[in-house]
Amino acid sequence: MRWDAVGGDEAFPFSHRLRARFADTDAMGVVHHGAYVRYLESARTEYLRALGHPYDEVRRSGIDFSVVEVGVRFLRPLHFDEEVDVATALTWRRGATFQMSYRVEAGGRRRAEGVTVHAAVDAEGRPARLPPWLPPPLGS
Amino acid sequence: MRWDAVGGDEAFPFSHRLRARFADTDAMGVVHHGAYVRYLESARTEYLRALGHPYDEVRRSGIDFSVVEVGVRFLRPLHFDEEVDVATALTWRRGATFQMSYRVEAGGRRRAEGVTVHAAVDAEGRPARLPPWLPPPLGS
Amino acid sequence: MRWDAVGGDEAFPFSHRLRARFADTDAMGVVHHGAYVRYLESARTEYLRALGHPYDEVRRSGIDFSVVEVGVRFLRPLHFDEEVDVATALTWRRGATFQMSYRVEAGGRRRAEGVTVHAAVDAEGRPARLPPWLPPPLGS
Amino acid sequence: MRWDAVGGDEAFPFSHRLRARFADTDAMGVVHHGAYVRYLESARTEYLRALGHPYDEVRRSGIDFSVVEVGVRFLRPLHFDEEVDVATALTWRRGATFQMSYRVEAGGRRRAEGVTVHAAVDAEGRPARLPPWLPPPLGS
Questions:
Q1: What is the ipTM of this complex?
Q2: What is residue B29's DSSP assignment?
């Protein structure tokens, strides 16, 4: 898990807007930390669609992007009904593995940062070649 | 809980589009039945916004719409990444209580129908007058 | 969906104890209504295990109990960390379909009541015969 | 976030057993990665109870353990209905901040490892002194 890209200057190539749901909140009155993991997943899914390869089609082609690592740093809380922008970029790749980084913002302020590491696997769960259409890592 | 409006001919005044997330699916390969409850909530929240009264503001004004009943009928499964339209209408009201009905559709087919019953309560949880801006029940 | 058994005098044959998680709460400071659907599912799963037929084995035998209807009535809120007892019974059956009813209690008080209706389906999603080990409906 | 304790030899002082719910699974047929975050939270909550300080009481005393960081490494998938043991230990502390580490096991095999970092905050969200009853870091 490499956090350097998240804090860097380089703009992320894609951003997904979503709405913090009431079901995402907890008794502290803010969005529960577990909900961010779903937000990252939504941004990742929408980025694949924007790349012309909806994850649904990727899966039907026999490839899954299994999650092998996830990390989130919480900077400032999100509240119910806030519009949230989750920017994402592919920030590292090697062999069958790649990393996505995420910047979670709302109301012009960074709320959280995240990283997920994925392994491409075939239908039997064996490592698979990364699809050629995956973008090169940010900054490469 | 009254189901008649859901199956009726009358169009619902509002519809919210959302995307079935991977996190919403289960090991049967379809959207888990529990996720629909969150979909209804999202549609309800967006309808209040469309009425000019975001639920966040309603809550800050001291009123909560506590959920006292929920029901969902599952007609055909939803799958990951489908675009889902949740139409909603206020279909009944009496005293501090009102009912919302929902039609869940995707790809031109009805997938589920739902009903929620709500009680307006103040900060102490006591029954409160329904806000005057709530629409009259569908068909009234 | 038949609610009569829930309010009846007859004891339910099985009860599952669980703990309300912090992740289950929402910004109203209570357990979110959507979490109850997962509580009912846990109780149902544990009841099948108590009957000697873990749902996992049922599924491997080629049968799924697809959820075709769910309903919950919320009587008094549940709070974080409360111990919750979910009693359940099979309360109706016909053809490939059966209904489970639920009483959700904590601290000696009824908090919610629920009903789920299920259809037995085979691997292709076609109606399947109900397994012979399913108990007769409560009171029959 | 420090991962060294997770892979170390030292036994963790507490372990919580839970059951993987069907609602926790996803369309890959395994427990969704987001569910693990809830599993860690349950283990943490139960550990506080075992220490004689249920988190509910901690919160009523005016202290919250806000989550500032979470990380999970997924080693082998969990499946529906597996019994899961989540061992946890306090592995680092400084000022108002402490770290918990987690080992997630089932069927005698390590499935995942996790870390959460928490800040003690008062009712206004300001840093608060760590309660004196929090155990010293593992190995200190």
A1: 0.96
A2: S
